[in-house]
Amino acid sequence: MEEKLMIPKWVNKHNELYTAATRHPFTLSIRDGSVVFSAFKLWLGQDYIFVRAFVPFVASLLLKAWKESDDDSDVEVILGGIAALNDEISWFKREASKWSVSLSSIVPQKANLEYCRFLESITSPEVEYTVAVTAFWAIEAVYQESYAHCLSDGAKTPEELKETCQRWGNDGFGQYCHTLQNIANRRLEKSPEDIVLKAEAMVIRVLEYEVEFWNMSRGET
Ligand code: HMH
Predict the structure, then answer these.
(1) CA dist., res. 221 & res. 211, Å (int)
(2) 137 touches ligand 1 (CB under 6 Å)
(3) Cβ of residue 51 lying under 6 Å from some atom of ligand 1
(4) How far, in Å, from the CA of 47 to the mean position of ligand 1?
(5) Where in this chain does the record put each Thiaminase-2/PQQC domain (predicted)?
(6) What confidence tens digit (pLDDT) does each residue in 40-56 have?
(7) Rounded to whole angstroms, what are the CA distances from 114 to 5, 53, 110, 111, 124?
(8) Can 210 be counted among the known catalytic residues?
(9) Which atom of ligand 1 is nearest to the CA of 140?
């Protein structure tokens, strides 16, 4: 069957990279129960820094949606995303305290710094709304797919990590990612070729950064 929607088409076309990001050895180790807790703690501290940098990116996306979108509900969806991030930051603080991770002394690793710098670069007004919302979908979808897999049939995820997996792996978050994908697909359908090409390149870059981010927790970066 010929796929008309751009995102499913790209997921198919770049399946190897998509799978590298969503079935990474680190999240697979959570799923099979072999995860080393020190690796999880490293991820926790690094992701807290990432999420703090993610907020201004989503704020810039909100501004773009408000200015450029043809559908008022986009702003509401993104605002919901910002509200969820507010909650997420509180969750990171609680979770870090449970694991005795001191968030104030976390030093961002190279892969994290590079990803955060990239996020900052795409807050620029020169990045079109369609391209930015596609990036947003990709960033959220990697976590949704990765952590939902840790809760699926046959998973041996340690009890201590189930709440983390629930955070991104729950059905509500899955629905939210689907809504983001619908927004991106709708915009891409109406976009000229150059924007579509930029959005595809954006998906590839996000997936590459996500793989590098997970790699930190394997001690490879
Ligand atoms: C690195 N990517 C990374 N961290 C996150 N928290 C998300 C995506 C999803 O919010």
Answers:
(1) 11
(2) no
(3) yes
(4) 7
(5) 13-218
(6) 999 999 999 999 999 99
(7) 30, 11, 6, 5, 16
(8) yes
(9) 9
Contact yes or no for 30/40 (Cβ under 8 A): yes
| Exposure class string for 98-133: b at 16+ Cβ within 10 A, else e | eeebebeebebbebbeebbebbeebbeeebbbbbbb
Give CA–CA dist 210/221, Å, rounded.
13
Q: Extract the tokens encoding 199.
A: 């959005």
Write down the H helix ranges in 190-221.
193-216
Ligand 1 contact via 213 beta carbon (within 6 Å)? yes
The verdict on ipTM greater than 0.90 is yes
Kindly report, residue by residue over 168-200, the tens digit of the pLDDT.
Answer: 999 999 999 999 999 999 999 999 999 999 999
Distance CA 29, CA 35 (A): 5
Strands, E assignment, 5-44: none
- Beta carbons of 103 and 44 less than 8 angstroms apart: no
Q: Sign of the CA dihedral 127, 55, 109, 219?
A: negative
Q: What are the tokens at 82? A: 């910002």
